[in-house]
Amino acid sequence: MSKRAAKELVNDDLITIAWGDSMASAAKRMEKLKIRHLAVVDEQGEIVGILSDRDVQRAMNPTISLDDAGQGVYSEIDEFDPDARVRHYMAWPPKTVPANTDLKEVAALMVTEKISSLLVQDGDDTIGIITTEDLLKVLMSLLGHPQTRLSMDARSLLRMER
User: Fold this and answer.
1) Cα 2 from chain centroid?
2) Residue 48 belongs to a domain
3) Does residue 27 form part of some domain?
4) Total structural domains in the chain?
5) pTM (predicted TM-score)
6) Are 20 and 139 in contact (CB under 8 A)?
7) By CB distance 3.0 to 4.6 Å, which of 29, 72, 75, 107 could disulfide with 63?
8) pLDDT tens for residues 15-26?
9) Is 13 contained in some domain?
10) Residues in CB range of 59: below 8 A, 6 or more apart
């Protein structure tokens, strides 16, 4: 297999959210778009962090009520503190890799750092994001998964589920 760079796999459709937005709005955006990561921007539009679905789950306050026996029962509805903001839960600074980074290094960094996404940079410009899901799609193609074709390039694989 020839060396493949991060820029070949990068998803250039980077979805952002303002760091002052509520966690409830972040959760709704992620659910609506069926994504697990949002790039967080400040008032100047600069990327200052990443919000993952794990961060959203951490921000949820499950509703607890008592049943007739006095036992705590968790509600089906998770709520957010109305004061909870994206900046309170985001990971910062965001982890990045240069566009020419070998995908093996990208995967190793994600495993070592225990993170599920990396921003890809070309010089000072952020050109997109790579997630664990993106890397798994490449693995599926290498293994000849029935839902993929071995001849597909990484960009085609990324668009399969959209």
Assistant:
1) 27
2) yes
3) yes
4) 1
5) 0.78
6) no
7) 75
8) 999 999 999 999
9) yes
10) 23, 27, 80, 81, 84, 88, 89
